[in-house]
Amino acid sequence: MANFAISDIHGCNKSFLALLKKLNLRKGDTLYLLGDLINKGPDSIGVLNTVLELIRNKIDVKPLKGNHEQMLIDVIRIGQPKINPFVRKMLNLEKESAIPEHLLEWISQWPYFYENDHFVFVHAGLNFEIENVFDDLKSMVYIRDNTIMPEKIDHRRLIHGHTPQTVLSTQKQIDNMKPAINIDGGCVMYRSKKLAHLMALDLDFLHLIVQPNIDHQPKAKLSKEVSSQL
Hints:
This protein is of the alpha/beta class. It has eight helices and nine strands. Helix 3 runs antiparallel to helix 4 (83-90).
């Protein structure tokens, strides 16, 4: 069975679908989604529905919270009526659209990290300044600059997102056997000439599969090949 990780989709569902087509996931494959599935991009609900469709197709999807999911959950806890405008903005909902309570409940249940024998998966990173790095949940969704101490995670590699970087920078982390691999290609930053990519990391071969952002391009500029993937 194949194993992949993707981070920081940020509502770019067309780009997400195009990348998934390249992965050719099959029943029993595992897909880690490292947070920030929502907000900023044009179709957060579409991304969530795509994930649910993967689950219905027996893909072992493991979504975890990013800082944007955390912000959504924090606002939900405040209660009505202040919640509605913020939730609608984060999920790209029109004023007349009903807030999908089942999706909010589902997101609130996502964990902050996953781990297996070879990797630790988290959205932003870990706080290596404390004895048990898994005690600091806030750092898992918000931290940016930290010094990796591999011995604190049993010398497994840390796979994360949160801080946008170029595909070349991620490839260098893989090639140079860095203890952490950042797979946030800044997909939603479509105006950037260096970013605006969604990356999937093949965890079995440490190979990158890359999809440029196609969500913010006018439909007339989409090639027939790309359009057929949507």
